[in-house]
Amino acid sequence: MKVLSIARNTFKECVRDKVLYNLVVFAILIIISSLLLGGITIGDVEQIIVNLGLSTLSIFGTLISIFIGIQLVYKEIDRKTIYSLLSKPVSRAEFIIGKFLGLSWTLAVNVAVMLAGIYGAILYLRHSVELGDFQILLAGLVILVELMLVIAIALFFSTFSTPALSALFTFCLYVLGHFNPDIRHFAAYSSSSSVRALCGVLYYVVPNFGNFGLISATAHGKPLAKQLYLYSFSYGLLYSAIVLVLAIVIFQKRNFK
Amino acid sequence: MSTVISARGLSKSFRSGFWKTKSVAALQDLHLEVQENEIFGYLGPNGAGKSTTLKLLMSLIYPSQGQVEILGKPASDVSVRRHIGYLPENPYFYEYLTAEEFLSYYAGLFDFDASQTKARVERFLKLTGVYDARKLQLRKFSKGMIQRIGIAQALINDPKVVFLDEPMSGLDPIGRREVRDLILELKKEGRTVFFSTHILNDVETTCDRVAILDRGRLVGSGRLTELFSKEVRHVEVVVSNISLAQLRQVAGNEVPIHPSGVTYLLEIDRNAALGKLVSGIEQAAGTLVSVTPVRQTMEEYFFALLQKSSN
Fold it and tell me: Which of A87, A99, A248, A255 to mutate to test the interface with B (most CBs of B within 10 A)?
């Protein structure tokens, strides 16, 4: 109940953030423009709409997750609203989880709006919705879980770092996560045992964002196994939970001067 | 009466410097007890460590040494906060929320149901005089209104113990009086109030007991009646419609006389024959304007204590 109260308030705070509206409007414009792009390209227009739409959802969702996520805890500390909040019977763990759920809720609404835009574009072209289009919704949900992981990482860094550094660290981890398989390949080619050891640690520690890479397959209409979706959801949620636990451990020890 | 707040050997140091190697002691070896249903004043100049102590009590910061308990439990116990309320210094709240939304949010953190929340929000908005502004966003509130809504959120759960950090800060005389009256009302309701201030008059008019902090150390504590003498030191008599020569004849040469416009102020020893002086003034057809016994003030005691501490 307390966690939900904090989540609700965080949602209210996020929807007032101008960064959010700028990014959402821009993303919707890109989705709409995919209709125009389809007319000047050689290829399946629907494929372009789904590909561009889901990619836009992923990129802009990541930007929202990072830029708003890094501010969630920092703002409360900087503006000292945390003093009165933590004097209530709310544990620091509940505070972090509430913040995470609030921004995740905001991103869920954004994902729903952008998916509605994609479906709207498809409907405009085809004047019908097919069973195969359900895959787009699943891909959208996988992207949402990916964004929740980015939020968790941004929250983690924001518990001990400034917004600028938190944004930098989160972005670097996000990029590194997309090259996660390459870390292992790099280790295999290295002659140094310490480099191999370091790469080994990095491979397991850095989240593998490749696990959420279903956009291309969805755009091409390739049917994907249920297990793949389940694995993506489980991986994302479990990793987010681990990162949140680390964030809570650090936040528990923090002194608010 | 039971002890509701207890600090034993409480110390807090902060690390400073680029490499965080320098240690600054903000609070040193504080021993303090506050009894139930007391109004306890926590005094000290700016930077004495008052807010540090309050933050330790709220578990916003952790002690370097020592222990602190509230209502018999460690201050870090989350369940204790069901029974306490806290107003931080220069409070800042969520500016995008209205007063009603803000109090509802905080009431929601105590697991009250919807009807209880609504009743409490209305009650405390009215109690603190901001009911008419309940639909206004907090960004449009004045400093005084923010202080009032801050008190409302501190009381929303009907706490047994209320912690107020500089509650009169930034308020006009009417606001200060209202907060003072509210503190006295809280005591009548059986609550314990712990409030920090650097304004001595606030303490003199409200507190049962005080503690005085200077540079992180407790330099004095106790009941106001015990801390400094309420014995009359001397009497100030103000007279008019009499010449200086006549006054000197009546009072004698040893009594200090200070002219002030059309009046004269005399400082009479408390043991002197005040009655004889008064009748002498009447016989000389003078007018007795006032007779005021002078006692040691809180201010004098406070400065004497700080002087002693710095020596």
Answer: A87
